[in-house]
Design goal:
By secondary structure, the chain is α/β, with parallel strands linked by helices. It folds into three domains: 64 residues, no CATH class; 108 residues, 2-Layer Sandwich (Nucleotidyltransferase, domain 5); 87 residues. It has 13 helices and five strands. It has a five-stranded mixed beta sheet with strand order 3-2-1-4-5. A hairpin with a 2-residue loop joins strand 2 and strand 3. It is elongated, with a radius of gyration of 23 Å.
Amino acid sequence: MLRQEVQSGGAGGYAQGLAVRGESGALVIYLRFTQGIAFERLATLLSDILGLEISEGALVNMLDASRGAFAAQRSTIRARLLSGTALQSDETGLRVGKSNWWLWVFHHGDSAVFVAEPSRAKKVVEDFLGDFRPDYWVSDRYGGQLGWANKENQVCLAHLIRDVQYAIDCGDDVFAPDLRHLLGRACRIGRRRERLSDATLKTYARRLEARLDQLMMRTPMHAAGVKLQNMIKRTRRHLFVFVTNRELPTTNNGSERALRPCAVFRKITNGFRTEWGAKLYADIRSVVETARRRAIGALDAIRLTLAGKPLAPA
């Protein structure tokens, strides 16, 4: 099929008339953005394996021409994501040209949207949400991701446990060790929620809060323990929201898993030359990650997107 397309129009006509809606365009996008193949190697691969002679410039033109299709699919995914009651978020660094950017992920359930912006400020979240505010929000303790929920935030206990362990390693033996045990117990309760009744979960929540009250009455002698206790005072209302809300996870590891392929891609490619390339990558990651959650293969999701078809929920 690839040879037929090239023979009928040539490499230049192939890119201009955008075979992006065909099998070849989907394959190029798949190899570039999910397998991290550089343009030079991609051109060689297409030539050696498929007999498709196409320049790196033509490959870039193909990606450029796909921007509208992926932006439309991303808008559809965003609409579904913002119709729910909970959101999770995180961000990681991104290199665009000579500037440091940030790649954000907003997700929950079967939908995920990535946003590439030159800022880590709250303005990114505000622009993404518009007038929408979810009831619950799961994130780490970074200020830019807090304060967006109508009802409550749940902070990541995995991040918190690492900070507690750091205080223990520094020498605090008054506050941090027992807090570490308490957070571990809370995580174990979270893993058992499916087998527990609502009344039992409420009892567990009261017991966790009561035990935390006892720990907060202690006076750490080590500076690391004092700092940790002050941090808990600021965030304690966000620690155990998940216990009685089955929709919320105990950690924000889901966000880190969603960003992990992006970190791998960053290491392979060293970033993007253009802003539109970074934003296109964010839209493509939105499609691929959402497709994974809906049991759709990455290549099939790209084909559906280029054909203007939505990704059906699982």
